[in-house]
Every structure is written in structure tokens, then in C-alpha cells.
Amino acid sequence: MANSLKKWFGLLSLAAAGGFVYLNRRRLIARLLQLPPPQYQVEIQSGIRISMPDGVTLAADLYRPVGLDSAPTILTRTPYGRKNANQIFAHLFAERGFNVVAQDTRGRFDSEGEFEPYVNEARDGEATLAWIAEQPWSNGRIGMWGQSYVGYVQWAAASTGTPHLHALLPAITQANLGGPSEQGFMWLDRTLRWLLLLDAMTDQSLSAWERMALTFYAPEQNKRLEPGWNHLPLATADEAVLGHSQSFYQTWAAQDGPDSPYWQAVDLRPKVPEIAVPTHLVAGWYDIFLKGQLEDYRALYEAGHNPYLTIGPWTHVALPGMVATVREGLDWFNAKLKGDEEAIRPYPVHIYLQGADKWLGYECWPPPTEETPFYLQTMGQLATSKPAAGSPPDHYRYDPADPTPNLGGALLSIEAGQVDNRPLEARPDVLTYTTEPLTAPLTVIGHVRLQLYVRSSLEHTDFYGRLCDVDVDGRSLNICDGLFRVQPGRGEPQPDGSLLVEVDMTATAYQFQPGHRLRLQVSSGAHPRISRNLGTGEPVMHGTTMLAADQTIYHDPEHPSALLLPLT
Q1: CA distances from residue 282 to 72, 156, 538 in whole angstroms, order as listed
Q2: How far apart are CA 31 and CA 108, in angstroms?
Q3: CB within 8 A of 524, min separation 6: which ones?
Q4: Cβ neighbours of residue 144 closer than 8 Å, sequence gap 6 or more
Q5: What is the pLDDT of residue 17?
Q6: What is the pLDDT, as a whole number, of residue 447?
Q7: Burial letters for 272-285: b for 16+ Cβ neighbours within 10 Å, e otherwise?
Q8: Alpha carbon distance 57, 60 (integer Å)
Q9: Can you tell me whether residue 336 is helix, strand or coil?
Q10: Nearest 5°: phi and psi at 356?
Q11: DSSP structural state of residue 379
């Protein structure tokens, strides 16, 4: 990842030198990124002010291909600075025949107003699209492109029903970007890390090097984040990280969960089925928003639309994923904004099969598979045969004062992705169940589920499952995972007093190789990625009391706990 960041900054420096004016520089960058060669030089009009309906003006830059009187336009709206890495993306599209409008969102960098995440993006996006449609250099065909928050603003603009939007490419994002999970826990690490990133980008007291370190370098970020990870109550964790309170974080802390009117107003999922704008979703197997993005795809598909979906072996901040988003964007916009339908691939769904190092094409997601149970067994075994009679349950204690840590996986940092989980599996609060070595390849493609028969000493607790690939050297590499939060009324009570819970472990496309073994981890937390379950039932943002939970995992004929894998 360090080498990727060096390459990224090298490209940024190269792009900035002369603004891509020199043809040899433009061609070199195209070769490095495996893009079609540039067709146009680019002229830039900086500091445009675009008025919103309430009188606030937002700052934007216009990138135009020299020699085109009018052209289709791509809009990016970003809270991360329109003059940062966004310049590279804008140049790449403009060189290939698109106008690009790069805009700072409300309250960020040169734009007026107050930045309150999510709240103003629908009307600001709608107004900006209407402004573009009136400009003489616009041919009336407009698309939106971008990743993460820059993807959410696309859903926001499209949700208004604006007639000026003709193509979307939301990458590594989802239509309900903010708020606690539906189960009530907080995505602790990514929320606090995002607060830190936003603050560092505009903190004028920092040197350029300090700003860059806090933006890109996870160890430096972690030093600032650790006090917030371990702080209670979470309602004031912003002060522990930033040294001051953050107004919109305090607004979030005052909400009473995902069903509050505040979060309902910025949850765009109910509107996704109504959005008929051609949409191409780009996701990563280790992205923090994969689950939500697959739900967005399903909503579009079941509503009768024809969404495209690309999923690669990427994390949220992976450079290859960013470059892939540009490549897919060029093809998508050439087809949907310029009318070149041959520019896009024949299969709407394109996924990377990890472990086999190849791409697969499908008509829709998920492809046909056969769901096969792998049952938890005595002595830490995992097998397709049902557990034997008399198989004793397994036990462990989860203590939120010494929470089970997270390693790798879906994180908003360069520490995301696959890592060796053996240090985690050595803890007494983590159970593992492992198959015998495989004699043939085993291919898993689709949604992974875990059904557990459990008992806890507390009414409020968590159960977490993670699938790993154990290679011939013994490394245990994480693939996908998920968490189920137990509270009164959740789970399926059993006659003997145990509880059946189902953990949604998201999805994957992975081929286990001969000699490798499948491993399931079972625990009760992934700190600080997911906020600790304190065991008391107190509101997640305001709890301060911690109770330890004694956990029991059953695996016998009456309690056939199983990992359910979609096999091809």
C-alpha cells in the first residue's frame, strides 16, 4: 500500500506540472493507468460561483476539452477539496471529450454555508445540475461520478427526480451512508476516522506534512483515534479525537437510532427503486460499503432496471480500485452520454474471483449457486456432515473492558483487506472451526450466512462470525464477516432456552485452493471497527457501564450450527 501511495502522489505531481498541457505527459499517464490515449488538451476555468436556491454559493472548477464547443458533462461534488486528487480525475475525463465540473460541497473549502453531512446534498446537487444544463458549453447530457461520499451525493441528486441527470457511477458507496447500523451499533472506527480526515484537511494549524500524514497514513491516524475508540460515552468521542466537539457529530449523538426522523430524511434507500437513471455500481470485496451497495443493486434490479455492477479485490482506499472506477466511468459515460453502446461490456455483472485471479461475467447478481452447510463440530472441526449426538457446546467470555480486537477486513484505512488472523485466533474469547485440507478447488460466490445456536448470560450481547482461508503455511486470511446484535425480541428462541441467530456475513467471490482449509471464527466483537456491546442495553451513544458476557455455542443434532456457503 505504501508503494501505491507513492505512485499516486507521483501521478499527482506529474499531473500538476503543466496541467497536462504537454502531450507526452498525458500519454505517459494514460499508459500507466491503462487508459485510452488522450484526445484533447484541457482548459480550466477556476473559481466559478454557483448559486443555490437559498442564496449560498458553491465553488467549482470547469475542465473543458479544447476544440469542443459543447460536450456532455460529468459532475463531481466533493467534501475533500475539488483541487486535491480530484484534479487528476477531472483531467482524465476532460482529455477524452467530456466537460467536467468539480465542486466543493456546501461548507467545505471554498464553498459557502455550513457542512452538515448528507442533509443538503439533494437540493444542492439538483440546483447544480440545472445550472450546468443552462450553460452554452453543455450539450444537455450530464452524468455524475465519484467514490464514497462523492458517490452518495449522486444518489441524493438522482432522488430529486431531476430531468438533467442521464448517467450515474456511484463507487464504493451506498444510498444510506450515515447513521448507526440497523441493528443499532455504531461503525466506530470509520465514523471517527472520517471526522479526523475532514478536520485534518482544513486545519490550518497543521503543516503540509502533518495534514498529509493524518489524511493517508494509518499509524499516524491511529495515534489520534485511539483515545476516541476507548472513550465512553461515545457521544463525546469527537472531543477525545479532535480536542474539540464537532457540531454535526453532536447532532448525530442526539438522535435515538436509525429510525429517528433525522436519519430517515437522509436514508435514500426507499427512493433507489424509483431512480431510472442508468447506473453502474463499482464495489470492492473489502470495502466498508459492500453490503449496502449490493442492497442498492438488488433494489434497482428488482424494480426492473438494468444496473451494472463491478466488484474487484479492493479496499475503500485502494489505488487500483480508484483507477478501475475511472476506466469503468469512461466506458459507461461514452455509452450513456455519447451514445456509443458498444463501449460497455456485454455482461452487466463483472466480479473478480479471489484465489483464482480471474474475472467472471454474469447477467445478474448473485449468480446461481447451491447453498451448502458446513456444520460446526466438536474439537473445533468444520465439516459438511452433521454434528454427532452428545457433542458438547463451546464456551468463552466476552469482556467489553478488554474487547476482542479487529484485524483487517473492511476498514477506512490502508490497514484494510486480508491479513493473517492467527494473533486474533489465539485469544481465549475467539473460537475457531476448521475443515480438513481440501483435495480440490472450492468456489464460493454469493452471500454468506452463519446460523448459530447460542446462549448468553446477558440479554444484550453480540455474536460475530468471520470466514478465513488457511493456506499451506498456516496463515489464516480473512475473507468476509458480519455481526448479529442480540437484544430482547431479536433471534429465534428455542424450546430449551437457547437462541438461534443468523449472522449476515456479507458476500464474496473466492476460490479455496487444494491443500487449503476453511476456517470459521466465532466471537463477540471486532473493536474498534464496530462499537463494543457494553452488555447493559444502554443507548449506544450514551452507555458507560460495562458487563462481561459468558457465551455458549451449541453444535449437536438438536442445535446444528452451520456456516452456509453458496457454492458453484
Answers
A1: 21, 17, 37
A2: 34
A3: 396, 398, 404, 429, 461, 462, 463, 464, 533, 549, 551
A4: 74, 75, 76, 77, 125, 153, 154, 157, 158, 165, 167, 168, 169
A5: 45
A6: 98
A7: bbebebbbbbbbbb
A8: 10
A9: helix
A10: -110, -10
A11: G
Q: Report which secondary-structure segment, H or E, holds 564.
A: strand 562-567
Q: What is the 3-state secondary structure (H, E, C) of 399-467?
A: CCCCCCECCCECCCCCCCECCECHHHHCCCCCEEEECCCCCCCEEEEEEEEEEEEEEECCCCEEEEEEE
State the cell numbers at 551. Answer: 457465551
CB contact at 8 A, 42 and 87? no
Structural Rg of the chain based on CA atoms: 24
Q: Would you state the cell numbers that stand for residue 420, as one nine-digit string?
A: 493473517
C-alpha cell at 542: 450514551
Q: Which three cell numbers stand for residue 282?
A: 463499482
Q: For residue 295, what is its C-alpha cell? A: 442492497
65 Cβ partners below 8 Å, 6+ apart?
39, 40, 41, 42, 71, 94, 95, 96, 97, 98, 99
Phi, psi of 141 (to 5 degrees): -100, 120
Residues 6+ apart with CB under 8 A from 213: 220
Integer CA distances (angstroms), 462 to 13, 434, 539, in order: 47, 22, 15
CA-CA distance, 123 to 115, in Å (whole number)?
14
Amino acid at 459: E
Sequence-ordered list of residues with C-beta below 8 angstroms from that of 340, at least 6 positions apart, any chain: 334
Q: What region, left, alpha or beta, does residue 131 occupy, with left being phi > 0 and alpha being psi -120 to 50 degrees?
A: alpha
pLDDT attached to residue 16: 44
Residue 459 grid cell:
440479554
- Of the chain, the end-to-end C-alpha distance in Å amounts to 32
Distance of CA 548 to CAs 280, 457, 462, Å?
Answer: 45, 9, 11
- Measured CA to CA, the distance from residue 131 to residue 127 in angstroms comes to 6
Structure-block grid coordinates of residue 457:
448470560
Q: Say how many C-beta atoms besides its own lie within 10 A of residue 568's C-beta.
A: 15
Residues whose CB is less than 8 angstroms from the CB of residue 209 and which lie 6 or more positions away in sequence, other chains included: none
Q: Which helix H or strand E contains 520, and what residues bound it? A: strand 517-523
d(CA 451, CA 559): 10
Tell me the three cell numbers of residue 430. 475467539
Q: Of the candidates 301, 292, 311, 79, which has an alpha carbon nearest to the alpha carbon of residue 176?
A: 292
Distances (CA, A) of 244 to 198, 228, 234, 238: 14, 12, 14, 7
Consecutive H or E run containing 254: helix 247-254
Amino acid present at 360 = L
pLDDT for position 525: 97
Residues 420 and 476 sit within 8 Å (Cβ to Cβ): yes
- Helix or strand (DSSP H, E) at 484: strand 476-486
| pLDDT given for residue 471 in this prediction | 98
Residue ranges in the chain whose pLDDT is less than 50 = 1-9, 11-22
